[in-house]
Amino acid sequence: MITSKEKLRFGIIGCGRIAPKHAESIIAIPEAELVAVCDIISEKAERFAHLYNADPYLDYKELLQREDIDIVTIATPSGIHAEIGIEAAKAGKHVMVEKPMAMTLKQADYLIKACQEYNVKLSVIHQNRYNKSIKILREAMEKGRFGKLTHGQATIRWNRNEDYYIQAPWRGTKLQDGGVLMNQSIHNIDLLQWMMGPVESVFGYTTTALRQIEMEDVAGAVIRFKNGAIGLIEAATTIYPKNIEETLNIFGETGSVVIGGIAVNRVEVWEFPESEGEKNQIFSAQESDPPTVYGFGHREIIEDMIKSVKSNTSPPINGEEGRKALEIILAIYKSQESGLPVKLPLLDDFAD
Ligand SMILES: NC(=O)c1ccc[n+]([C@@H]2O[C@H](COP(=O)([O-])OP(=O)(O)OC[C@H]3O[C@@H](n4cnc5c(N)ncnc54)[C@H](O)[C@@H]3O)[C@@H](O)[C@H]2O)c1
To answer: Helix, strand or coil for residue 176?
Structure first.
């Protein structure tokens, strides 16, 4: 039993591009300590361990054997998230897993089940839910300020050049990564469904327009939500010459909100009845664009996981929450294959 004052000890598995966000957040949290890191490439594990004063491992199963680790963060290629997460649960470690939590619903469900069975917490990293702008949007939604929701749009216009895919050959592959929907747009799709509610059906097209990858670099999709509202998704990593925007638009009978910026970080439109005073306050306290599209949310999501472990409650973005955007994306892939709209929940034959 962990006491409320005790520090929780972390291990990070996968020391690549996103891992420093985790390491720096853990180090900055007084109730957390980074004790071990793992990468199959020894120079990466060594360098990372040295940088953050932790012990290096080459085999994640050895890291999992350490009794003093409470929480592991999985930041490896996405295709092995579920496998590592299940092993971590079996070893009694709480699991924080980068998005997407898995590549298929079957893998996601095995991971959720393993965490339940071994009584550990599972948190999926959708750090954009912690953006200041997104928090106030969610609050407005919970207060019912939009009235009847009419439609919403998630747009991502980013550039991931050929070098990005060459640097890490798992990127853009079907089994390990997926395309722009599964890798980049998943955060925005998560936000769209978080605001608009459960999905009834999805229709979409994907294409590999410019990059030399197996999966899509451009996608467009339409969602019918159960409340009758419409959702639109536009996603591209082909934008010339650099990232332009990640934007979430939400519209209702008595509300219009557009959150833009480079990574859904800036309120661009905020319209509700009698919102003039509040608007001035929101616009004057805007966050500037973050230095990277990863934003500032990793620290808070880790802090929430620590709270969940200490109080034995569910993390806000648990396995079931993380599964929702994954299901929408798999439905778009299925629609691209069949040329037809796809109803949710996805049937087992596509859940593999
Ligand atoms: N939350 C976000 O905004 C965000 C941003 C970027 C990436 N991600 C996610 O984080 C994950 C990693 O992405 P990245 O861009 O950092 O990738 P990366 O290729 O830069 O890093 C992955 C690392 O994992 C290591 N690795 C591979 N197999 C391993 C294993 N079995 N055990 C230990 N280490 C192993 C690789 O050697 C590599 O160093 C992906 O799932 C990605 O979708 C999330």
So the answer is: coil
